[in-house]
């Protein structure tokens, strides 16, 4: 420490000696004014010592505080940057997963739509089959009723024709035989 102080003092004294030679005084002296140089050097040394003694600790403390502040800020910035990178990576993963999830949702929606379409078509087929069965039953009933009406009408017409023709063509023996056949059919 003393060696550094001595080197700094020597580095300052040499230029001062050169300056002291050029200073004009009222009494010109030939050569270097060693007394004035010594007084100035002592004065400067006292100033440096006072600054070193009183200002240096504050400056050193300020430098240490500043260094610690900068170091803490850099560490915090590094932490924040790491957190930001982790957050960015997490969001990137979420975005990547979201794309896959959207594809999966789309696939499931398509499958659900296809199932629902098949169910609707099956229900429509069942309804169509029921309508066809009902239509066939209705047609069958109407056909049966039409046949029965036709038979009844044919029977009525045949009876009317028979009633008209019977008295002309039937004999008493035929009438007896018809009555006997009718009675035997009714008994069965």
Shape label: rod-shaped
Number of strands: 0
* Continuous helix count: 3
Helix content: over 70%
* Strand percentage: under 5%
**How far do the termini sit from each other?**
151 Å
- Secondary structure class reads mainly alpha
Low-confidence blocks of residues:
none
Average pLDDT, to the nearest integer?
82
Pattern of helices and strands:
HHH
The biggest sheet amounts to:
none
Radius of gyration from the alpha-carbon trace, in angstroms: 66 Å
What would you say this structure looks like, in words?
There is one protein chain. With 188 residues, the chain is mostly helical. It has a domain at 2-119. 92% of the residues lie in helices and 0% in strands. It has helices at 2-22, 34-169, 172-187. α1 (2-22) packs across α2. The longest helix is centred in the middle third of the chain and has 136 residues, at 34-169. It is rod-shaped and about 195 Å long. The relative contact order is 0.03. The mean pLDDT is 82.
